[in-house]
Amino acid sequence: MNQPELNTLIKNDRIDHFLLIRKIELRSTKSGNDFLSTELGDKSTSMNANIWEGFSEIAARGKVGDVVKVTGTIEEYQGSLQIRVASMRLALEKDNIRARDFLPISKRNPEEMKKEFTQKIKSIFDKQLKKLLLEIFNETRFELFCTAPAGKSWHHAYIHGLLEHTLEIIKVCELMCEFHPELNRDLLISGAMLHDIGKIEELSFDSAFEYTDKGKLVGHIVIASNLVRDEIKKIPGFPTELGNNLIHLILSHQGKLEHASPVVPKTVEAIALYQADELSAKVNAYKNAIEAELKPDSNWTKFIHLADTDLHKFNLRENSEDNTKKSLFD
Amino acid sequence: MNQPELNTLIKNDRIDHFLLIRKIELRSTKSGNDFLSTELGDKSTSMNANIWEGFSEIAARGKVGDVVKVTGTIEEYQGSLQIRVASMRLALEKDNIRARDFLPISKRNPEEMKKEFTQKIKSIFDKQLKKLLLEIFNETRFELFCTAPAGKSWHHAYIHGLLEHTLEIIKVCELMCEFHPELNRDLLISGAMLHDIGKIEELSFDSAFEYTDKGKLVGHIVIASNLVRDEIKKIPGFPTELGNNLIHLILSHQGKLEHASPVVPKTVEAIALYQADELSAKVNAYKNAIEAELKPDSNWTKFIHLADTDLHKFNLRENSEDNTKKSLFD
Amino acid sequence: MNQPELNTLIKNDRIDHFLLIRKIELRSTKSGNDFLSTELGDKSTSMNANIWEGFSEIAARGKVGDVVKVTGTIEEYQGSLQIRVASMRLALEKDNIRARDFLPISKRNPEEMKKEFTQKIKSIFDKQLKKLLLEIFNETRFELFCTAPAGKSWHHAYIHGLLEHTLEIIKVCELMCEFHPELNRDLLISGAMLHDIGKIEELSFDSAFEYTDKGKLVGHIVIASNLVRDEIKKIPGFPTELGNNLIHLILSHQGKLEHASPVVPKTVEAIALYQADELSAKVNAYKNAIEAELKPDSNWTKFIHLADTDLHKFNLRENSEDNTKKSLFD
Amino acid sequence: MNQPELNTLIKNDRIDHFLLIRKIELRSTKSGNDFLSTELGDKSTSMNANIWEGFSEIAARGKVGDVVKVTGTIEEYQGSLQIRVASMRLALEKDNIRARDFLPISKRNPEEMKKEFTQKIKSIFDKQLKKLLLEIFNETRFELFCTAPAGKSWHHAYIHGLLEHTLEIIKVCELMCEFHPELNRDLLISGAMLHDIGKIEELSFDSAFEYTDKGKLVGHIVIASNLVRDEIKKIPGFPTELGNNLIHLILSHQGKLEHASPVVPKTVEAIALYQADELSAKVNAYKNAIEAELKPDSNWTKFIHLADTDLHKFNLRENSEDNTKKSLFD
Amino acid sequence: MNQPELNTLIKNDRIDHFLLIRKIELRSTKSGNDFLSTELGDKSTSMNANIWEGFSEIAARGKVGDVVKVTGTIEEYQGSLQIRVASMRLALEKDNIRARDFLPISKRNPEEMKKEFTQKIKSIFDKQLKKLLLEIFNETRFELFCTAPAGKSWHHAYIHGLLEHTLEIIKVCELMCEFHPELNRDLLISGAMLHDIGKIEELSFDSAFEYTDKGKLVGHIVIASNLVRDEIKKIPGFPTELGNNLIHLILSHQGKLEHASPVVPKTVEAIALYQADELSAKVNAYKNAIEAELKPDSNWTKFIHLADTDLHKFNLRENSEDNTKKSLFD
Amino acid sequence: MNQPELNTLIKNDRIDHFLLIRKIELRSTKSGNDFLSTELGDKSTSMNANIWEGFSEIAARGKVGDVVKVTGTIEEYQGSLQIRVASMRLALEKDNIRARDFLPISKRNPEEMKKEFTQKIKSIFDKQLKKLLLEIFNETRFELFCTAPAGKSWHHAYIHGLLEHTLEIIKVCELMCEFHPELNRDLLISGAMLHDIGKIEELSFDSAFEYTDKGKLVGHIVIASNLVRDEIKKIPGFPTELGNNLIHLILSHQGKLEHASPVVPKTVEAIALYQADELSAKVNAYKNAIEAELKPDSNWTKFIHLADTDLHKFNLRENSEDNTKKSLFD
Q1: pLDDT per residue over F296-329, tens digit each?
Q2: Which of C11, C329, C330 to mutate to test the interface with A (most CBs of A within 10 A)?
Q3: Chain F residue closest to D78 (CA)?
Q4: pLDDT tens for residues B244-292?
Q5: Which ranges of D64-160 does DSSP label H, i.e. alpha helix?
Q6: More confident residue, C316 or F127
Q7: Which of D307, D277, D280 is nearest to D292 (CA)?
Q8: Higher pLDDT residue, A317 or F173?
Q9: Residues in chain F within 8 Å Cβ distance of A287
Q10: Which residues of C touch E (CB under 8 A)?
Q11: F32 vs chain D: nearest CA distance in angstroms?
């Protein structure tokens, strides 16, 4: 797929792109004319695109998550760029296009991250834990794990996000093991690797990031604890207390009951994992929110609900000299 | 075991009883004499019993949950009854005494309750749910389920309490099905039966009601969902969505995240189960707290933390005539 | 009034109906033409209806809660049905139409419910409580009580809803009395009957469900306690403590201070009433929300604020075979 | 009663006093001797007093709230003063002693406060409100109102405290009326006068400050609203909306649902009354807590739970010179 | 500037006004025509004004906070008044117009308030506190202080609002000193004067009320404590403990950690200041919200989020006779 | 000071030690004999020590924080070790003993930590930030900073704890900079270094860890922001926005208003610092709590209030074989 990313285009640019349908709705004007209102995007951004005629096939068969081939031009409407559509058709099998390629994606190299993760498994000393990890991260599941996002929209909400997030936590936990040799490294790193694995069933990520029915009814925490328990039961002689402590890490990793953990952290490894998870998640989330939501001509975003504040981008290099003049109070 | 219950004895009564050790501690007086301070009880109540000599064997080998044979008399100290010990020895094998017989026990007939519960299983129409219930409530597990308390101290905290509590919920849920034929009765009643089954692993109840390590690290909600899922996997063709909904009932039955449910109720069956559980638990808990904690010469208990108030016992028959005289405001 | 219910009509159906005005506003198009924008409904549902000419009388005199006679056809606009108006006039006295007949109404038979309720009063054993109930539920007030909704929009929010809700609670409380003979049945059932009677003054329900000024400034809890106290004072020799306990049931029936109860439940009867109320209200509310808010082609509703989640409709019969195929985790 | 106040006595002083029993309990020493443990006090403070012999009559008949005649000496035990009892007998009718005279009492002159309050009633312009106030504050009720404390222990918890507290609020409200002529002064001042009148039934204050049964089951807010409503009903033509607004002031004066107000303030008068009440109550409570709980040789109290902090007494005159030496940061 | 206030104009009135731009946006109709959508206002109110041609200069150079000269007529659209623009140009230097004159302004006389405030400084007895106040309220800073609003939108959100609010608090605190001679008046009144002075840097108020960057990153509480500390350090021999207590008043004046005070009130002066601030702020806020948000033909406002309720305007004189007819319950 | 640490002694050991007075109180027995009750300790632990005679000088002059010379033996009382005192005297000047040497102390080498910290300052690239840090960490202040504990009792509550805690946070922040090159490393690391520097004035740590008056009235957050601001003002041309952002890091580092931060984190650097602080503090606190509070013969501590749970120590090596036997559910 050889096409410039949507967020690089400017007004009056020609467009001849495959794009993913993010919203689609048949609407009428007050005067009674029908038109098809869509939002189309690639991994870089999305734009509105209204079609005023010749949309009957798309209207009938197209749905969110489908890919379309669009020609037209970029125009501006009420301060935003949108697509003036010349033609639009659904992608065909022979176009050989995957919807997933239009989803946002990690900026880190996935092969490198996979290699890192595999090394981390090898670094586990305890034989039974290592065996357990190898069973859980079998080929099929590892592929899913390496593809999944870590969330629907808040943090690491992109393809390979779960892998990227997990690697960050592992490294933070390793640093904590340096500070505190009393920590059981094998247990803690195994817990870090497994804590969010339930997300590969909680979320669907083929053509959009959505919660599955199982995700809503059961949740990734219990999904993960079930999976780990299944595999533990297949390993003869796996110590019961080790199993309970590993599952405790998974269950308690959101730190508080009101964050949907059914137990709070009760071991030093559990509190380390929870705080490392918070650190990785929050920094990623704030960084992305600041990038995405900065108001025009401002160093401030709009109000971000999950942060319960507006956010500020500090750019030292932009400090002009007159920033240093004394204010009344300084 | 043919002995009068402890709460029927009064000052100066002779005592020749098997009793359970609830607390035991070797202490010294300021003047340096050692004595053994114990709290002994049967299913009706507990009393303090200090031993001033001849306690070396008990002090060395006795522990909480053991049964002792005690002789002596009942005396009063600072307004409470206690045991003046003449002799005390640990129960022997040949005494044929079970510690569990000294734990508080439901006032309802256990055989009758078991029969009721078995009838309820038979009333399930859906074949796969009924098969699942029969597998889960196999002989061994049913025995445990029928013996366990429903809690450590707050509600239905006595032998057979889990069975009694579960039956109450089932009946409340059946009433809700009468009001709302839209409810899926098979699903709801199955959920009611299974919602607290994790308590047979969360609590130990051989000689005291205590949380197990697994109970603290994993919790009865996830223990139950694991058990149900294991048995579902053994039943070929068990519908996935039915399984997810049944597990949802178990996971959400405490109603709120901050009450340790990892998901909140999202179906009408789930909200019915949660509210029925609350109703059964709270009424039992308040009734027992009022019975146990009423202050002397008062219709009020001390402050009850779990209710966040003191509680009142209303006794219509005690209204003397002068209660009806008009107050200033009436 | 012999006309098909609005929710049975489909596109292109002719309409010749009396309907209730739920919203009415005179608006202009950008091009400066005035039109009358209304929402019209009967007890089954509501639809938008814009009138482009000949609306001067309605615009001048019509208001929310009035009934109009409308002719026209059903048409579709942006995925919803609406009314294309041919003619519209205000209902005349001789049309003999009551606005209340257009409000949502309980599916249960009101006469049957009244009979049940009257039987429950007769079942009260205590003479003074029974006398009190008969005075309170005198003819006028009983009629109002049997007509009122139990709420503005959340649960039992339809004509006869208060009666239906009260009967449910009475039956749940009777079941609790079976479990706990210690409960004072006369007190509890009387409290159940009276707990929400303040709603007949808190809400108006002639042509819409709205809070009255008194409802907002005083609230149904204090309104009810005032009413009960007035009638108690008329009964010579009514026991003071019985009166205080009955009023306590009314005041505490919302269970928590933050739910606007000025005292929390302090008796076992009070906690039973609160939990029975919750059970009846929540199950009704969730059932109705699921019915009303299910998204098209989905088993999930939109996000429901009062439940703080989206809700799920489980329909066993819809499980197709491929629901049983094993997922990765099952 | 001509005796020095208890808090003026020091070690080795002789004592020949009438004192109020605040606690009384028959206890035994470890060695089996009985003694009577009491706490005795007057309006200034309380002290422990143990009696080792000759206490049989007191033990049998004395109870909290009774007055006793005590002789003995003041001694020190574990850093606190206590009474070494030589003799103790219950007060006799002929002693002509009232238990209430031993309760803490306002430092303000009660007659002066009554006069002020009566003037404030006269200042009400609206005839019906003034009539209502005169009916409510009839001779009997006014006497009770002028005697009652405003609380059990937190603020204005002394005889005449309710009157003192109410006068403070009235003056604060008058100041607010100066700032905001839009406020309805008659309504606001009447609401201020009546807001806590329910406390004369919520609390008993003959020989101790305790909640009554009615106080616990109904609460002073609803007691007051009932009283006001009764008297309003006796006044022909009293405007309904005025009545609802006055009762709204009473019901909402604790400002938040979680503080037991069944409605929150919805008028500008209601918010003024709530905030004036908070101001009067908190300043009085903090002042008294600082006086009563200052740690020895410290300007800090112990931790005060209702303030959720320890409190500080600032005394400018105690600043020694070396307070002014510069710290590292200053 | 001699022009009638905007809120005195009615439909069809001619307009020839300077007005402040409150919102400005270039938009297009569906049919592709551009127009300029603005909201224009003076200190009394704001109105929408769309311009369909001849707006290129304004669109290019005009921004929020600029003043424009507008001619045209008042017209009505969807129930609201708006301006039909005949001509619009940006104000010129020679027009000699200040944006600030278009901001809402206190109804109290500013010179009178300044005089009052100056008198209050003179009333401080302690020499060092008085010196400190005179330094802080030097000419430049006093001018700013007397101009600033006390908030962005909730209470005293108008020019001179900070001065008006501070004077109210001073008077309430003086009243508290009358009730409680134990209060340190000098400390308390100084704290009242300084508590919100940080707002002159937290907010900008030249042409709109907005938070500054420093206001968002540091906040008015810490800004004020910094300012006071700077000036204290310039006064030799200023008592350390006095300084700490004064800064404590500033830091704790929002009363609760969750209201952004970094310490809670720990002295009786601190609790008095906090409660006086609440009283002044809330009454002003409710009064203004009721004025601004009353629904047409109603004594109720829309739902006010900061009050968490709708608000009610009580107008005794509007009570018609039929308000006094008895309702069922009265 | 060459004496075995207190926690290495066992029953019957001789003692001839300098120890710190942690508690001291003159008490009497019931029989009227005075004795001196003390708690004495060194950096390893504390023990009770009662003195029955010859304590008059200590009782008169000794106070918490003084060092005494004690001889005697270790004995056991009610399961705990205590000191049977033979002689006790206050330490003399010539003994050359510092109270601080008896306080708990970091296990890390302080010189090594100082060197690390100095290196981190050197690693700051921005000249003005580096200059600021060098000024703040001047010789006197650096010495204090390197000695202070990071808290009174919860985390890093030992000599050098503040330095140890700060170094941990710096390293975690450096790791975050590796993950996110967008982070401003100079700003973040400077903020980490300074965030808790206010603790050197908030706490006293000469002979015990206690809050100072300034600590309670102002708090370490505002103390630190004041200090940093003072030093910034001395550096000509220090960029205003850089200063505001650095102070924002300090003010927001406790992450939430209810944790006493007057502003919440609004930049990505601020959220990183907050989460790194939480991680370092919680893991240290849990580790120490588990070490200190483990119940005898148990892997569980008592209930830890700040963690709101009991805590568990997992020791893989203790897993006996029978831990692996299958439970009913596994």
Answers
A1: 778 999 899 999 999 999 875 444 444 444 555 6
A2: C329
A3: F27
A4: 999 999 999 999 999 999 999 999 999 999 999 999 999 999 999 998 8
A5: 110-122, 127-136, 139-147
A6: F127
A7: D307
A8: F173
A9: 180, 182, 268
A10: 25-28, 30, 140-141, 144, 200-201, 213-214, 216-217, 223, 226-227
A11: 9
Instruction: Name the token pair of E225.
Output: 């404590």
Q: ipTM, 2 decimals?
A: 0.89
| Whole-angstrom distance, CA of residue E82 vs CA of residue E68 | 16
- With tokens 């807590």, the residue in question is D289
- For residue F12, give how far its alpha carbon lies from the nearest alpha carbon of chain D (Å): 29
Report pTM.
0.91
- Touch between E and B (at least 3 CB pairs under 8 Å): no
Looking at the complex, report in whole angstroms how far the Cα of residue A227 sits from the nearest Cα belonging to chain C: 6
Contact list, C328 vs chain A (CB under 8 Å): 140-141, 144, 200-201
Nearest to E242 by CA among E156, E109, E128: E128
Determine the angle formed by the axes of helices E240-251 and E268-293, rounding to 10 degrees: 30
Contact D158, D104 (CB under 8 A): yes
| Tokens at D162, concatenated | 């309710």
Q: Tell me the two tokens of residue F44.
A: 């390893």
Tell me the CA end-to-end span of chain F in Å, nearest whole number: 56
User: Do residues E217 and F220 touch, judged by C-beta distance below 8 A?
Assistant: no
CB–CB of E25 and A327 under 8 A? Answer: no
pLDDT in tens, chain E (330 residues): 689 999 899 888 999 999 999 888 887 765 557 788 899 999 888 899 989 888 888 888 888 889 999 999 998 876 678 999 999 999 998 999 988 899 999 999 999 999 999 999 999 999 999 999 999 999 999 999 999 999 998 899 999 999 999 999 999 999 999 999 999 999 999 999 999 999 999 999 988 899 999 999 999 999 999 999 999 999 999 999 999 999 999 999 999 999 999 999 999 999 999 999 999 999 999 999 998 888 877 899 989 999 999 999 987 544 444 444 455 565
> Which chains have 3+ CB pairs within 8 A of D?
B, C, E, F
- A116-165, pLDDT tens digit by residue? 999 999 999 999 999 999 999 999 999 999 999 999 988 999 999 999 99
Cross-chain Cβ contact E78/C27 below 8 Å: yes
- In angstroms, the separation between the Cα of residue B152 and the nearest Cα of chain A is 17
Q: Which helix (H) or strand (E) holds F50?
A: strand F46-51
- E144 contact residues in A (CB cutoff 8 A): 328
Instruction: Render A6-33 in DSSP notation, one character per residue.
Output: GGG--TT-EEEEEEEEEEEEEEE-TTS-
DSSP secondary structure, E139-192, as one string: HHHHHHHHH--S-SSSSS-SBTHHHHHHHHHHHHHHHHHHH-TTS-HHHHHHHH
Mean pLDDT, rounded, of chain D: 90
Identify all chain B residues contacting A228, using CB atoms and an 8 Å cutoff: none
Q: Name the minimum distance, in Å, from the CA of E262 to any CA of chain C.
A: 27
Interatomic CA distance for residues B237 and C319, integer angstroms: 11
Q: Closest residue of B to C172, CA-based?
A: B172
Residue A63, CB-side half-sphere exposure with 13 Å CA sphere? 4
* Alpha carbons C90 and C83: distance in angstroms, whole number: 16
- In terms of C-beta distances under 8 Å and separation of at least 24 residues, what long-range contacts does F35-40 make, across chains too? F40/F68, F40/F70, F40/F83
Q: Which of A12, A215, A20 is nearest to A99 (CA)?
A: A20
Is C225 exposed, middle or buried (CB count within 10 Å of its CB: 0-12, 13-18, 19+)? buried
CA distances from A322 to A330, B253, F289 (A): 14, 61, 51
Neighbors of chain E with 3 or more C-beta pairs under 8 Å: A, C, D, F
The Cα–Cα gap between B43 and A47 comes to: 72
